[in-house]
């Protein structure tokens, strides 16, 4: 038996020796802890924003899209009084 297997057996023995209620309470505390959740949400929102910006860059490099936007801006800035 190697050191990793011995360590795993010791860990399992420690878990088995604990009362089930105490083990469940520890698990419940760990699962209910939301430390870092806001940070993860900001990271996901940032990644989505970067992906969207990349998509816009690709779209804006198209000559057809660029000409449509130029025409739209030109019409918006032209005064037809």
Chain-wise SSE layout:
Layout (H helix, E strand, L loop, with lengths): L2 H15 L2 H13 L4 H24 L2 H15 L4
In short:
This protein is an all-alpha fold and 81 residues long.
Whole-number total of structural domains: 2
End-to-end Cα distance: 91 Å
The residue fraction in helices comes out at: over 70%
The secondary structure category is mainly alpha
Write down the Rg: 29 Å
Average pLDDT for all residues:
78
Beta strands, count: 0
SSE topology string: HHHH
Question: Based on CA inertia axes, which overall geometry fits?
Answer: rod-shaped
Beta-strand proportion: under 5%
- So how many helices? 4
- Which residue ranges are poorly predicted, with pLDDT under 50 across at least 5 consecutive positions? none
The largest sheet is: none
Pfam family, one: DUF4244
InterPro entries: DUF4244
Keywords: Membrane, Transmembrane, Transmembrane helix
Protein name: DUF4244 domain-containing protein
Q: What does this 3D model show about the protein?
A:
With about 80 residues, this protein is mainly alpha-helical. The protein folds into two domains: about 1-35, no CATH class; about 35-80. Helices cover about 85% and strands about 0% of the residues. It has four helices and no strands. It has helices at about 5-15, 20-30, 35-60, 65-75. It is rod-shaped, with a radius of gyration of 29 Å. The mean pLDDT is about 80. Pfam families: DUF4244. Keywords: Membrane, Transmembrane, Transmembrane helix.
């Amino acid at each position: 038996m190697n050191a990793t297997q011995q360590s795993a057996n010791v860990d399992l023995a420690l878990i088995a020796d604990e009362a089930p209620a105490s083990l469940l309470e520890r698990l419940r505390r760990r699962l209910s802890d939301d430390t870092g959740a806001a940070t993860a949400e900001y990271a996901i929102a940032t990644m989505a924003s970067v992906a969207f910006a990349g998509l816009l860059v690709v779209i804006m490099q198209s000559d057809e899209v660029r000409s449509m936007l130029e025409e739209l801006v030109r019409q918006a800035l032209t005064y037809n009084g």
